[in-house]
């Protein structure tokens, strides 16, 4: 939805940039402000490096246990209440719909094995509801078998979701949502949500008109997504948005534009997931305009490899964040704070394994970030004890940069094409920092947002692990009427793992949700 | 010297990050903090589901409209609530098969100055306010209707909209009932024979509905009778505890402020209600606000008509008290005078599919305005509103395009 400000540069300049062509001087858009990037102190007001450590995580009291759903507080309980079970089998879809719309709280809906054909969303507005199938089957299975239940929405009314839920204490397990018209499973404004062993899938790969989100809990509290699978979503396979307290573990996300997204979310525990063969694998970000300020994200033991699927998000004028992501992005962190990565595996991501970005990279107007109290800076990113297997960074955006639709990839691609030709660069380093925060950049600050990259296993022969890309300066050189890619390259700085200033040991206080 | 990455950012960023420093404490002060898991997570939440209409436990006495006593002809909910058939309400005589539904006395038909669009269906509405009770006038909000009030809306498709009285197929009647615990909504689905409508909590899809539009063009659609729970998706506001509470949409003074033919006599609808003792507090009619007919150029300015259309069609969600409004920060209620939250040069609030542009409204350019795109498209997942529309409302698409194009052009950044 939010184009990179780069896209507002003269189109001709961007297009020419990709081909490294000379340009006519055609614009003075960029000349009306005095650059102040080099001016001492002008960049210091951002408190990212210090504030981020204190404005979150302090309330948890170090009690731990938040990562255990058994310890979650509940604002609704079925204890002591009548708990009926209603059973439905394929062919009884209308009866099921009638029952769902007359639910007494604390009812379990047991779905038999086989395929249910729905012509409308299953809309639940009651507390204490459980929806339980016979199993989620396997990827590609459009029909339920003896031990699986498929809810098929292929012929549903336009504009409807698969499951559409608002309720407290909601559980859904052991079923598949197939070909939903919009989102597979949208659970909104709910609390104590348990999504287990569910598959959401669209039948066709790379189809822009597929549903946007597979598993989509949003604006909720205490959400568990575990042992699920998500395929072929035109935006995100698993998308936890605007939620406080979530556990996302042991899931598989493949063939989506974005595999797993953690958005505007506080206290997320994201472990043992596999995000492979998406455009981008596992991402953490805040969107502008959202009042929830995401923080405290723990990402461990995940496999985030081979995310090189061409970006099939909408080809309309950019209106979704992920439509701007270059293919081959393992992970991006954007407008995020207090994010810790350990024991993950990245590799074979064509553009980069991890990109650390400022929110201003997608929305340059700080006012748009006002509802989240100007939550655009990223800060306190701790990447340690992971394994980078290699094969990443050598083919930015799969070698097909698109300056109009994915301008960041186009810029990075242009710089690294030059680097390969002139400086024998092997490609983008494992971690790329855009260098924007604090904005405007202050060159006197060595590691202003506290990025720590230590103790990771790197491929043999790795020269540098991290690049400070200085997107502001690079963009200035490349988007000028007289682009200078050599000067742009010179702005970028590379660091070996263990080199100062990125050899720090995390942030304080440490996460309490590990 | 570097080119500024973001022209003009420098000073703004300094000022705003300073604001951030002073605000972030507040922010966390109002945000639920993680806790030890032993106490109530958020004391702002009410226990359980207080105030939310429940899912229809039958037999509940509450608010069943009962005329009480012997005055025949007044509706009576009968023994079971909700009744399994529309006739169980006793609100109508006759059937569509036998010359049409006729509201009983006291069940007052009404028409809105600009109605909500629902795939060109023809709609008829009635309002029943129990005897000895009355609604209270509000200048801007939904009329304060007493417990026992029943609102009905019947949806039909004539074979040819140019002759809307002929070959009419009645599809559904939606019933809103004001009960002590709040409003509840029930969909009733008409049978093929057009002799009875049956409670259809689960909704229905009617395949391949066809009709000829006023432009002479045949249209087809799969018509969705929303399920009971789907009613909440449009008819809702968030109460102080963030629970979704069901409310009516159209029964506001400004939409009721027009004449209606009551048995050959044309009367102002609000005055008629007041005359019957069913409305109190009605000020002199010339001081009652009026929403114009959005498609009658003689009634109001382009802007007023466009804002009216958005108000009745979009503002039930896009207002500061509805979930999607608060998420998107797009407020299309007619009272909103803030250009930004009205969408001018505003980016949409959350990620989503391509919708034709970067900003909700680009003044002077409807074709790059997301608001217009979502109204104009018939693509599933992109069109708005979410429910109740499969077809483009051509007139409205034109109206909103004209309105945006008439704004002084402005390039959004």
TrEMBL record, chain A:
Name of protein: Right handed beta helix domain-containing protein
Source organism per UniProt: Pseudomyxococcus hansupus
Top-rank taxon, per record: Bacteria
Pfam families, per database record: Beta_helix
Biased composition (Low complexity): 43-55
Region (Disordered): 29-77
Matching SMART domains: PbH1 (SM00710)
Compositionally biased intervals (Gly residues): 56-65
Gene3D superfamilies named among the record's database cross-references: Single-stranded right-handed beta-helix, Pectin lyase-like
